[in-house]
């Protein structure tokens, strides 16, 4: 089962968690106070680069039907779409740049280059996902309603298609995100009416019309005799963007170590406990400056979940301080190579297509589904968080290491 008591699972006392929360609050305050021209220059340059890539791609694609020009134009367009969705659209709509009071990059004004309307995304992602991160039954991003990614969800026959649904979601990712905004799981729980769904469908249809018209009618028409050339390039560029966005998001949410939680854990949660849940429920991947940029700095998914509205270009420096806190409180800092994190996510999707009776680990101690019960914590154990022999903290990271040793 998922984690019911995050403090018990983390091997932290109430005082530890509140102290951790104060230290994370201090990080937020430091970044907020130091925001300035350096950050403004970063985002303006990112916007300029993205627009130059797209304009350059459009010119190349319309001016020539040469094979090499098509490859270059398609690559530029795909890269521009990735930057727009990941570093600009996702982060701007989080309000990361609202402090600049620039209407061009304000969260209330930005409409991104994808079929999902930003108004739906801000509700399903910024509010629901970030508030209820990885809480089974509350966060619709846990499997997106179409895949089984935790043993807390009972197996049903349709889940045998997990790998196929995964492939389709990656291919049609922008369409999946748009459909996600309909919140059909809320309809099934009678928390949303079909009248509201129809209203949302009209909003989506309007956005889809603009996107399809732009990519598959207007720009091919402007290319004249090269219209087929441009049409194919636009379709491939959208596929490139879809697969990359899908991979980055999955690597931040479904590798081993990105924990799931129960509703009981959330009911009496403090701000400090929310911080702890974000740290345990997210995963990073290793990236240099270029890979970080084209992933929207979501290689720092832990830092993003802790501070979703702080500028993304500051996540690298924030990560240094978060790692130090993980050392101090003996907490795991879940990270790995991009390939490793994706493979773990894919392996979870693949094996959970099968019923539990065919799987080996238990629901409390599987790589993708942990709970505090895996430690069989006894009453009074919280009094021994510090090793009396060494004076060092014995937290979750040490406990996990000791379990692996046995």
UniProtKB/TrEMBL annotation:
InterPro entries: FA_desaturase_dom, Fatty_acid_desaturase. Residues 70-335 form the Fatty acid desaturase domain. Coiled coil: none annotated. It comes from the Bacteria. GO terms for biological process: lipid biosynthetic process. This is Acyl-CoA desaturase. Pfam families: FA_desaturase. GO terms for cellular component: membrane. GO terms for molecular function: oxidoreductase activity, acting on paired donors, with oxidation of a pair of donors resulting in the reduction of molecular oxygen to two molecules of water. PANTHER family: DELTA(5) FATTY ACID DESATURASE C-RELATED, FATTY ACID DESATURASE 2. CDD domains: Delta6-FADS-like.
